[in-house]
Write a structure and sequence with these properties.
By secondary structure, the chain is α/β, with parallel strands linked by helices. The protein has a single domain (about 5-265), classed as Bira Bifunctional Protein, Domain 2 (BirA Bifunctional Protein, domain 2). The protein has ten helices and twelve strands. The strands form two sheets. Strands 7-8-9-10-6-2-1-11 form an eight-stranded mixed beta sheet, sandwiched between helices. Strands 5-3-4-12 form a four-stranded mixed beta sheet. A hairpin with a 4-residue loop joins strand 7 (about 125-130) and strand 8. Helix 1 (about 15-35) crosses helix 9. The two termini are about 30 Å apart.
Length: about 270
């Protein structure tokens, strides 16, 4: 399969990249028509500073350690879709994949199969789970979800390479009921960094999380698209929609939305 890589700018807020997912999903057919070597889907990857994302229907105070996040400059956002609370930082590769099909489940499972195979090509013993995670042994290294749009499906995935789990455990507060559902007593028991798996194994040790992401790009994509100034401008406008406090207060009590909180479109799912 052939894929187009979108070389998105670095240093944006997490909600900017979610806005980019929406924008490029709508623009897919335009991109496709402009390339002689047609492709099956588009991919882009991004890394953000410490950020917590919680779901559409979640009570923020029940899922997020607000005092800790504010004291440690951890951004907090709510997304429009459901699902669990997620922590991301510079050790986590965020992956966005868009395919020109509204058959979302088919696209989703195809993505999980290919990403699992990609990790196996890199030397990891990776398999997809029934919960749409990717596992190495008993540990979760990637959480994923999808969302259907007219004529397109967006798959969003996380890849735990070198996440600070100590901060993760402080920043999010999943219920004991949720942990018990997975048969664990803490978040840390259930997840593992790929860097931990790599340590000491020849050929698996990368110099940085960026180098790890580059290897995924090499295995997936054979063409690159650089967003235009107009693309950036349009994505900026969509991002502002997510930051609109009237949108947040219309759906949720203002008291639950921290200053600077944004709203998110896609399920950003590392359901711990």
């Amino acid at each position: 399969m052939s894929h187009l890589y979108i070389d998105v700018p670095i240093g944006k807020r997490l909600i900017w990249y979610l806005a980019a997912e929406e924008y490029f999903a709508k623009k897919f057919q335009v991109l496709y028509a402009n390339y002689i070597n047609h492709f099956d889907g588009v991919l882009f990857m991004w890394i953000v500073p410490p950020t917590v994302i919680f779901g559409r229907h979640q009570v923020m105070a029940n899922e997020v350690n607000i005092d800790y996040c504010q004291a440690n400059n951890i951004a907090m956002y709510r997304r429009k879709s459901g699902g669990g609370c997620v922590y991301a930082d510079e050790g986590n590769v965020m992956i966005s994949y868009i395919a020109p099909s509204s058959h979302s489940e088919q696209v989703f499972q195809s993505y999980l199969d290919k990403m699992s195979d990609t990790l196996c090509q890199l030397g990891y013993d990776a398999v997809k789970s029934t919960h749409n995670d990717i596992m190495v042994g008993e540990y979760k290294v990637s959480g994923n979800a999808c969302c259907a749009m007219p004529n397109a499906t967006i798959v969003h995935g996380t890849m735990l390479y070198d996440v600070n789990f100590e901060v993760l455990q402080q920043a999010i507060t999943p219920s004991q009921e949720k942990l018990a559902k997975h048969g664990v007593e803490s978040v840390r028991q259930r997840v593992m960094n790929l860097k931990e798996v790599s340590r000491g194994i020849k050929g698996l040790e990368f110099q940085s999380v960026e180098q790890f992401a580059d290897r995924i790009k090499e295995l997936w994509c054979n063409q690159t698209y650089i967003p235009t100034d107009n693309d950036i401008h349009e994505i900026d406008k969509i991002e502002q929609e997510y930051l609109d406090p009237t949108f947040i207060s219309r759906l949720y009590p203002i008291a639950l939305a921290p200053l600077g909180s944004g709203r998110m479109l896609w399920l950003f799912h590392l359901d711990l």
